[in-house]
Write a structure and sequence with these properties.
The chain is built from 9 helices and 16 strands. With about 375 residues, it is α/β, with parallel strands linked by helices. The protein is globular, with a radius of gyration of 19 Å. A hairpin with a 2-residue loop joins strand 4 and strand 5.
Length: about 375
């Protein structure tokens, strides 16, 4: 009974749970979504071990205060400025667009106010310092990615477009979050005349409560621009879907990839990348620059605070080539970096797609 109660709180029981009703597809059987590859949640003992509050976890600081970023209002054509806010929340500024991924400003994540997993570090941008937000991307419905209190604040202040997987827009609308748009895997939407967003597969799962598992769709996103594609993986395990993404978007300029939780590895491996998986994914995709997400704010799994970052640096060192840490960024909450505009020759009559433009080489040896 204790295990069931703890598991219910961890997955998030809610009075009203999200579901999707629509036609069948290669990843939807009419009731539940599924991955292209089997994804087991592991034995019941493993599931309870992950959420058991009495289980011994690696150490984390109780609280660490960090500097915050005050981003500019906009950036120009071709430039990409990214601020790591926290967890999977990143502010992407490019081509005069301001895009937020999986925004979380709440003090705790969970189904009830004041109850849930607490943060150990503050958001890297004060909510009051956000520039005008045009687009919000929601990868899936878990509480650490689809934070309704934060989304309400964003909707009231900026009225952004909110793009997410099938079934989530209706759930948000019932809770006072307008602007939601559902996308299926490989479905696209224009963000600007030369910028197009595509929802892409991920290897994960969904649930807000105990009776709605896999009833809404989990996605990643590719933002295709004239100077290359930006990939936000959301929360995912490593899988063959990456080959599908690479086939359609062979020129990934920048990839945001999760590196935690890593342990216990057996129940987590199919649904959560480790740091080593993230390096492997970035190299497979040929990403010219990569950045770590999904670490350092909320304790999940058994990982110690610095363990995912240390594992990432070990994986980069194992490549045996210097400067690979300049290729795969690790930013602290509130840290920002900029990719400068790249020169892409364009014919006078048309703007080439990202796949047609000549790729720019990365730091030697870090990617194939």
């Amino acid at each position: 009974m204790i295990a069931l109660v703890v598991l219910a709180f961890a997955t998030g029981c809610a009075v009203l749970t999200p579901i999707y009703l629509g036609p069948r597809s290669d990843h939807f059987d009419g009731v539940h979504f599924h991955n292209y590859e089997p994804t087991s949640i592991g034995a019941a003992g493993d599931a309870f071990r992950r959420v058991n509050p009495f289980h011994e976890h690696g150490p984390w600081p109780r609280w660490e205060e960090l500097a915050t970023d005050t981003p500019p209002g906009r950036v120009g054509f071709g430039e990409v400025r990214v601020t790591f806010v926290n967890h999977a929340t990143v502010l992407i500024q490019t081509d005069s667009l301001n895009i937020l991924t999986d925004p979380v400003w709440s003090k705790r994540i969970g189904p009830f106010h004041g109850i849930g997993v607490r943060r150990h570090r503050p958001p890297g941008i004060r909510f009051e310092d956000l520039p005008p937000i045009d687009v919000v991307l929601i990868s899936h419905d878990h509480y650490d990615h689809m934070d309704v209190p934060t989304l309400r604040r964003l909707a009231q202040r900026f009225h952004p477009r909110i793009l997410t997987g099938l079934g989530n827009a209706e759930y948000l609308a019932v809770r006072g979050v307008a602007g939601g748009e559902n996308l299926d895997w490989w479905q696209s939407a224009a963000l600007a005349p030369d910028v197009r967003l595509t929802a892409v597969p991920a290897r994960h799962w969904s649930a807000r409560g105990i009776d709605d598992r896999d009833r809404t769709l989990w996605v990643g996103f590719v933002i295709d621009t004239p100077e290359g594609a930006l990939y936000f993986a959301g929360d995912t395990g490593y899988g063959r879907f990456l080959a599908m993404i690479h086939e359609r978007f062979p020129r990934i300029r920048f990839a945001l990839l999760p590196i935690a939780p890593q342990r216990p590895r057996r129940p987590l491996a199919a649904r959560h990348m480790s740091a080593g998986d993230a390096v492997r994914a970035a190299r497979f995709l040929g990403a010219r620059t990569a950045m770590a997400i999904h670490f350092g704010t909320f304790r999940q799994g058994d990982d110690a605070d610095r363990e995912p970052v240390d594992s990432l640096r070990e994986a980069l060192a194992a490549l045996g080539r210097p400067r690979c840490d300049e290729w795969f960024w690790v930013l602290r909450n509130g840290e920002a970096r900029t990719l400068p505009a790249e020169t892409v020759e364009q014919p006078d009559s048309a703007t080439p797609s990202a796949s047609e433009a000549e790729p720019v080489r990365n730091i030697d040896g870090c990617t194939p």
